[in-house]
Amino acid sequence: MEEIEKALKERLGWNEIVMDNIMWKYIGVSVNELITYGIDTHAWIEILRHLSINDTYMLGAVHGDVFVRSTSRSWYEISASTTSSPGVLYFERLTRSIKTPTVELTTRRRTPNVVYVRFYVKLRRSEWPWYGKGYETISSFNTSGLLRYLAGLVDTDGIVTSEKQPYGYRFEIDITSANIEFLEFLKNMVYERLSITGSIKKSKGDSKLRFRSLQAVQLYEGLRQYLAHPMKRLRAEVYLRYYNKELTIKEFEHFYELLKYDNNGNDPKRYHAADILTQAAPQTHTHGGYPLPLNL
Hints:
The longest helix has 15 residues, at 143-157. Residues 283-296 have low confidence and may be disordered. A hairpin with a 5-residue loop joins strand 7 (199-201) and strand 8. This protein is α+β, with helices and mostly antiparallel strands. It has 13 helices and nine strands. The strands form two sheets. A five-stranded mixed sheet has the order 1-2-4-3-9, with helices on one face.
């Protein structure tokens, strides 16, 4: 497999940029069109390339949607699963920054036609630096460490979106959690360290820590060098151009429509993780263990 991968890269020009271009083309986003507005659709790759297991981003990720479980007294498993096209490349790159991952394809009884792609790595307990670290530990982070932590949290379990208002569009960054105390703590930390005000919307399920309008723009400007989920980052970059009047409202709406997730069953951004993984196979390099079969 490694020899085939090497040949594809050397003889056919495969690389991470090609992989990324395939993904954007698949979901209907024109890379060349975005480049004319100064938007780098590949920036997320470079961010993850420099990420390490010791980065506070990683703690944000495991406090978000990356799952850590003990498999024995000495071993941990760190895993992430997705069904989305942008998400599958993001989580593959994220887990690879820890260790070369193994990939598992599964289905579930409630959604038998949807393939879930899961990446996982196994580490000795001594290799995992975030053992026993709860959210209170972020009070010891400096400003950069807090921003990296927030980026990992938003990338894995946050929402970056724009909402139409009578006067235009409002930018919003949300962090979701069932733990209200955690959200309150985080809201206070962001205000104390970054002077950015958020609000909490409580619900019976997951509640949300919300940053809206100018507060969301200010938060993204801090997160910009760390936010790495390709879709969330691109939405924020497009909005920032609109906010700075580098895009007209019609140009913004054009990109906004391309970046929305539809529920009509035909959206290539949803439920096509396995398809994108297959197309990007020469780049994924998932040889961390024995891949598990598809459970149909």
